[in-house]
Write a structure and sequence with these properties.
This protein is an alpha+beta fold and 246 residues long. The protein has helices at 46-51, 64-85, 139-149, 152-158, 165-187, and strands spanning 5-10, 18-25, 32-38, 92-93, 99-100, 105-111, 115-122, 126-135, 196-202, 207-212, 225-232, 236-244. A hairpin with a 7-residue loop joins strand 1 and strand 2. Helix 3 (139-149) packs across helix 5 (165-187).
């Protein structure tokens, strides 16, 4: 279960696009998490220089909205890493866009148009972490997108759950994004939404289970089960998947 408790709350005058920053506690998580809210209209590239967070070349000509979201995600990572290992630590970017963490650190970053989240831990606790937040998909878009996200078997299962279909689709979408973020750094193999299947959504315990449907490498094989937690909010859903060491 995700239990987000705010531990630290502050307005950041030095970075005008970051409106609030918060250290979070996640239940049953051996690590550190942070959230920062941001206003992309207040973003300027000089904030990257001040914070030591450099935009990759591929984002230098991107929209301000995209630049601000990237900055906020790395800023949240910097907050979480500061609590974990101290000092000012920045996170790089791999050739496929994945975060490059310091040695012996695993983590994940997600953002919406207004907030960014990061969770980090040591690799003695987890092999990988995946975290994702998604605004709820509207009903019209859900009707168009669901064949790309859900198999027939998953659709039948989801339709038996007493919740709005578009909310359930968003939850499954986010859960599979968390799975991808967790597993990709371990295999560097791209896989799609239909390469994993939701086998359980438990609203009472705010948990889910996914089954991998294809081999990614010798250890990440078809049939592997991965468990995660979720939190449904008013406008969005947050999922986290912790791939523990065996």
């Amino acid at each position: 279960m995700i239990d987000l408790q705010k531990r630290y709350h502050q307005y950041r005058q030095g970075n005008r696009s970051i409106t609030h920053e918060t250290i979070l506690t996640l239940a049953d998580f051996d690590g550190f998490a942070a959230q920062c809210d941001f206003n992309c209209d207040q973003f300027h590239l000089r904030q990257c220089t001040r914070s030591g967070i450099l935009l990759p070349d591929t984002l230098m000509t991107a929209s301000t909205k995209r630049q601000a979201a990237y900055f906020a995600g790395r800023y949240a990572a910097m907050l979480a890493l500061r609590r974990m290992i101290g000092g000012k630590v920045t996170v790089g970017r791999g050739v496929d866009g994945e975060p490059l963490w310091p040695e012996a650190v695993v983590g994940s970053i997600t953002h919406t148009n207004e907030s960014a989240y990061c969770a980090v831990s040591g690799n003695q606790h987890y092999q990988a972490i995946g975290i994702d937040m998604e605004p709820y998909i509207d009903a019209k878009t859900a009707a168009e997108l669901h064949p790309r996200i859900l198999s027939k078997k998953e659709s039948d299962y989801v339709n038996c759950i007493d919740a709005p279909f578009e909310h359930l689709l968003t939850l499954v979408f986010s859960a599979k994004e968390s799975l991808y973020k967790a597993l990709f750094p371990l295999c560097h193999q791209h896989f799609c939404f239909l390469d994993a299947e939701v086998t359980l959504i438990d609203y009472a315990n705010k948990s889910f289970e996914l089954a991998l449907l294809r081999d990614l490498n010798k250890t990440l094989a078809s049939g592997g089960l991965y468990n995660g937690a979720f939190e449904c909010r008013e406008k969005e859903v947050l999922t986290i998947l912790l791939y523990k060491n065996k």
